[in-house]
Amino acid sequence: MASQQLILAVSTIAILLVARWLSQSIRRRKTYKLPPQVPGIPIFGNTFQVPALQQGPWAKKLAEKYGEITWVFLNSSRVVTDLMERRAAIYNSRPPFPMTQGIMSQNSRIVLMPYNEQWRTVRKIMHQILSARALDVFMPFQDLESKNLCWDYLETPDRWWSANGRYANSVIMSVVFGKRSSLDDPEVVELFDTVEMFLENQQPGANLVDAFPVLDKLPKFLQWWRPKGMKIFEKTAHVYRREVQKLEEKIKQGTERRCFGTDFLQTKEVKTMSENQKLFVFGTLMEAGSDTSRVTIGQIIAGAVTSPDWVERARAQLDEVCGHNAERLPQWEDRPRLKYISAVVKEGFRWRPNIAEIGAPTMLIKDDEYEGYRFPAGTVFTWNAWALALNPDEYEEPERFWPERFLNGEEENALKGHWGFGPGRRVCVGWKVGEMNVWIAIARLLYCFDFKAVPGKPIDTMTIPQITKNKAPFDVQVTPRSAKHAALVRRDCEEAVKTQY
């Protein structure tokens, strides 16, 4: 009897909350003029139409059907620039995410923070660590770790995707914590597990409360999603706390290496932060420095297998600069003469948008009008990343991996010509570090290795998974270009593998 009364109480509260939300939505629709909307079902709208995975192709079809602006999605660079860039002050907040931000992140993940003073404080810290002014700090680590990456590709080619993850993670761990990561390090694997748990739960429709934040007003003991969220938070916090505690212990013992973590722990900002916020600053750095670079390197390799014509043109430039007989590895100082590699990297970020295939939702913070539409404060927008990248009105032959589209004098402007790092004030704060991670890795991998399809296992580049559970996202054969290139890797990269700190 008691359980029946509880179910009735939960149902009644939920119905009342949803009814209030529905009533407010109807009033808004009468007051404002909104863009074409994708037909949904009563109350739940499009919540259950969004696929759990591969949202990019789904959203691209919506863009083709409904035009430049649909409800939520911005489907052309023109409107993204007009709203997200030129009106960034009011279009760059975040809607509430009671599950992924409120519970799983304890309101401390910067990527989901609303546009407020807390966001500005954390963003400032992130910018100091990841900005272009810090490039001289990152470059030696990227040089060392990319040599280790080449060694891993030579010695364990069947673990190339794990090598990509180790490489990207080790760069940021070196800078932030003063320590390196090893191949198949269980702690790195655990970090990527927490990243994937966050990404899985951040997908539209994954959690009803994130689609209908009004449900967050239910008493906590009635929130059936809360135990799952708390379990993920506890695992995530454990991963972050473990690294911070190791660093703090080294500081006590006087054995720490100078790194951004040691500097951050001495700042006035950290003294005003909650423990959770401090952990998530470190955690965000670990995540941001690891995942996008790892995935993009893999995407470029897929592009090399499926569109090998551009690889020959890239190799011609690499050979001209570094030698036709594997004389030396590409270096940072070669970058002005390796414009094609810079174009390859930009094409990699454009070609198949990764992580946020349909962008990341932002929230309008005040009423606004645009080209005849009237939007109420609270309207949620997102740039439709997949549709933008594969729009034939914006890119010639958009599905083709074709670096030449970026050989336009803007090769070194990593943000120009694509939305791979996001728009406006929410542009990825670590965009320059991420671009550099990919540049030096791809320059050296293309110079030293061949990438071929596995017979009978073609790569469908439209369905490469972003969440892989520590498995290869696709099959590829990795071999040295020649015996001389293999010898070059052994000669120049072995020391990097032996280096420990």
Structural class: mainly alpha
Under CATH, the topology can be stated as Cytochrome p450
- For the report, how would you describe the main beta sheet? 3 strands, mixed
Number of strands: 7
Radius of gyration: 24 Å
Strand-residue proportion: under 5%
Helix content: 40-55%
Span of the ends, CA to CA: 63 Å
Order of helices and strands: HHEHHHHHHHHHHHHHHHEEEEHHEEH
Number of domains: 1
CATH architecture: Orthogonal Bundle
What form results from the Cα inertia axes? globular
Q: What's the level 1 CATH class?
A: Mainly Alpha
Spatial ordering of strands, largest sheet:
1-5-2
- What is the name of the CATH superfamily? Cytochrome P450
How many distinct helices? 20
Task: Describe the 3D structure.
The protein has 501 residues and is mainly alpha-helical. The protein has one domain: Cytochrome P450 (Cytochrome p450, Orthogonal Bundle), CATH 1.10.630.10. It has helices at residues 2-31, 55-66, 77-85, 88-91, 98-103, 117-130, 135-155, 160-177, 186-202, 208-211, 226-253, 260-264, 268-271, 275-288, 291-306, 309-322, 339-351, 385-389, 431-448, 483-498, and strands at 73-74, 362-363, 368-370, 373-375, 380-383, 449-452, 477-480. The strands form 3 sheets. A 3-stranded mixed sheet has the order 1-5-2. A hairpin with a 2-residue loop joins β3 (368-370) and β4. α7 runs parallel beside α19, α7 (135-155) crosses α20 and α9 packs antiparallel against α11 (226-253). The N and C termini lie far apart (63 Å).
